[in-house]
Amino acid sequence: MKHWCFVCCVLFLAAIVGVGVGVPLAMMEDFITSPQERLTAAQKILREVPLIDGHNDFPWNLRKFLRNNIQDFNFTADLRKVEPWSRSTWSHTDLLRLQEGMVGCQVFSAYVPCGSQHLDAVQLTLEQIDVIRRLTVKYADALEWVTESHGIETAHRRGKIASMVGVEGGHSIGNSIAVLRMFYNLGARYLTLTHTCNTPWADYAAGIDDPNQKTKTSGLKEVGLKEFGKKVIKEMNRIGMVVDLSHVSVQTMRDSLNVTKAPVIFSHSSAHSICNSTRNVPDDILRELSSNGGLVMVSFYNYFITCNGSASITDVIAHINHIRDVAGVDHVGIGAGFDGINYTPRGLEDVSKYPNLFAKLLEDPKWTTEDLKKLAGNNFLRVLRRVEQVRDQWQIAAVQPVEDSIPAKYIDGHTQCVYVGS
Asked: What are φ and ψ of residue 264, in 5° steps?
């Protein structure tokens, strides 16, 4: 009996000592004082979870500078030293800097201009998906083509950058739900419902306070999402394609959130309460987004951050914190928009700088390691898994494809390039 009492006393004392040592050690891990310690801690986080950036326009630069001829293009070069990239304020990406920035998954934008609407938008979009695929295959040692949430995690474990496709602009589908399905089959995993123009079925965020936006249409009545647009979203839910609401009008945001059965994203937007650009997300939508389970991936474009040409890493963090405060920490991510912007914040000048952002956030005690992992990529993975889950559930339920064509009245005056046959 005395022996067991002695053992219990020893174990009790050991537990007290363990707690006494363990608590300070845990506190020491959270209490990081120097910039280098914070950077090291940030890099550790990005080794454990994939950093997922929701929007990069590098493929458009491939078209603009190389006409998509990439056979002799060296993506491993430092493009800051290679013309014409070195002369462009719109260039922020190369493989070297993606790796330095510890990017785990880059969603590349298959973007084509609004001027191609009702013309050759579908063909141009196919060409952009094609060049993303060819770039990924050419640099297969570093990039991995992915179309599912588990593929992102697998690529990250292998030390590769997952390469995904998002189609930016509903005009790209040519008013055809069949084209939408084929884009999905080719690997596209989100569709931004509009770009800087209305489609016949959805309104965009008009009146942008942006020097690069030439068309000013403030004051026009917002229609939002038309009936055909609702069918587009239904089909996106059915096939497992993420609905992206960056660029759309507030009414289109509301209508889409009312229609969708899966979480949505804003692939590159910020908080309207801080910068009142129409490209940003109002607080009431942020609250709806929380109920939807969706995600705002914060843009790094100065005109969406401070509403002028100058911004800093601290200004970006203000948007991240605001979205966290209103929608919740589960509903904020990163969607810088590099290579599609020409004014970038100090400290976040290109794709190599992401660790700086996480190191800076570590100065704020409210950001735990788990919170930062959510911001980095776990929130996007959760959204994508849920979208895939809805797809799988609808497949089991035998929900049929949407076969509706767009009503002729929607495209009145834009049928000169449309074949009308028997």
From this structure: -110, 170
